[in-house]
UniProtKB/TrEMBL annotation:
GO biological process: L-leucine biosynthetic process
GO MF terms, alphabetically ordered: 3-isopropylmalate dehydrogenase activity; metal ion binding
Protein name: 3-isopropylmalate dehydrogenase
Domain of life (superkingdom): Bacteria
Start and end residues of each Isopropylmalate dehydrogenase-like domain: 3-341
Organism encoding this protein: Agrilactobacillus composti DSM 18527 = JCM 14202
Quaternary structure and interacting proteins, as annotated: Homodimer.
Length: 357
């Protein structure tokens, strides 16, 4: 039986995780599938329980699973912790060797009205950010915090750049066949190396075109001409920043899922947003990104397009009916939205039943 390690995390994390798991359970009833779910403490919740954000038992559970499903971690309560929740997140990514983080931004016709961009600019937005996740300035040494100065180090090896670019080029082959490498090669040595390596990788994918853009200009184009992008390949920090910007095109950061993958072992699926401490406990967190993370997991790890499709259709119907949380200007709660999606899933079951009898 497929086995999923679930990490609800902090603040809105458990709220959206519960919603997504209830929806997932309802969909399994329709498709007669059965996934085993095992929950583990992670982030601030684990600091409170055992004094560290990534307990050994959580890491062992994640390693042994077929996939890891994470909601979000962090919050003001733990900002001064010796080891913060965020350190646990970096550690699990590194320990599972999840070097490629796939962050898709896609707007469906029904969602265009919610975009802060003009409809003509937002419509047909469909690009993927392939973010390097286990190197760059997030992990480079030395790293030092003093009172008079501080140091972070941006470091990339040729091998690290090559493997992330290969993920981006391979992805482009099954999309619009274009890769844009975003960097700051007018200033940074690591960016210059990205361009050198890209020039050696690109010829192996003759069906894919490639161009380079500076990240500052690209940040502008993501909101002024988002449809120019297909696959964006970029470093850890740039990918982090640009994916939140990209999410805003859809009307809320609460919609975009992500997949982190490595060489072997389980992939990790999580929303790109954080734990939203400002709305935690209010019951209004948007569950869409978490639900989309389940859909992405079912599709990419378990190849269960049937269960994924049942969830996706019910979600689309619910969005089209205007059942949306306050971040979209709606008045649904996390629970009422979840109930509406489950109702739509159960209707699928009834119509399937009618069809076969
Ligand atoms: P955030 O993404 O949590 O929130 C930014 C804004 O978006 C907030 O106003 C929040 O209310 C809103 N928002 C985010 N997700 C939402 C949702 N599902 N529904 C409705 N509104 C939503 O970013 P932040 O406030 O900068 O960070 C809060 C904490 O989350 C920090 O501790 C940060 O380190 C952590 N964080 C964790 C992850 C993760 O677990 N992968 C990712 C990003 C940030
Ligand atoms: C994300 C988050 C994390 C990151 C933080 C919480 C460490 O912002 O997943 O986008 O910077 O990678
Ligand atoms: Mn981020």
């Amino acid at each position: 039986m497929p086995n999923i390690a679930v990490l609800p995390g902090d603040c809105i994390g458990p709220e959206i995780m519960n919603a997504a798991l209830e929806i997932f359970k309802a969909a399994q009833q329709v498709t007669n599938t059965n996934y085993t779910i095992q929950s583990y403490p992670f982030g601030g919740a684990a600091i409170d329980a055992v004094g560290e954000p990534l307990p050994a038992s959580t890491l062992a559970g994640a390693k042994a699973a077929d996939a890891v499903l994470l909601a979000a971690i962090g919050g003001p309560k733990w900002n001064d912790a010796k080891e913060r929740p965020e350190a646990g997140l970096l550690k699990i990514r590194k320990s599972l060797n999840l070097f490629a983080n796939i962050r898709p931004t896609k707007i469906t016709p029904g969602m265009v009205q919610y975009s802060p961009l003009k409809p003509d600019i937002a419509k047909n937005t469909d690009f993927v950010i392939v973010r390097e996740l286990t190197s760059g300035i997030y992990f480079g040494q030395p790293r030092r915090l003093g009172t008079a100065d501080a140091v972070d180090t941006s470091h990339y090896t040729e091998a690290e750049i090559k493997r992330i670019l290969e993920v981006a080029f391979t992805m482009a082959q099954s999309r619009q066949k274009h890769v844009t490498v975003l960097d700051k090669a007018n200033v940074l040595a690591t960016s210059k190396l990205w361009r050198q390596v890209a020039a050696t990788v690109a010829p192996n994918y003759p069906d894919v075109t490639m161009d380079f853009e500076y990240v500052d200009a690209a940040a502008m184009k993501i909101v002024s001409n988002p449809t120019q992008f297909d696959v964006i390949a970029t470093s850890n920090l740039f990918g982090d920043i640009l994916s939140d910007e990209a999410a805003a095109i859809t009307g809320s950061i609460g919609t975009i899922p992500s997949e982190s993958r490595g060489i072997a072992g389980p992939n990790l699926y999580e929303p790109i947003h954080g734990s939203a401490p400002d709305i935690a406990g209010k019951g209004i967190a948007n569950p869409i990104a978490m639900i989309n993370s389940v859909v992405m997991m079912l599709t990419n790890t378990f190849h269960d397009t049937q269960t994924a499709g049942v969830i996706q259709n019910a979600l689309n119907q619910t969005i089209e009916a205007g059942t949306l949380t306050p971040d979209f200007g709606g008045n649904a709660t996390t629970t009422s939205m979840t109930t509406a999606i489950i109702k739509a899933i159960e209707a699928t079951k009834e119509s399937a039943y009618v069809k076969t009898t």
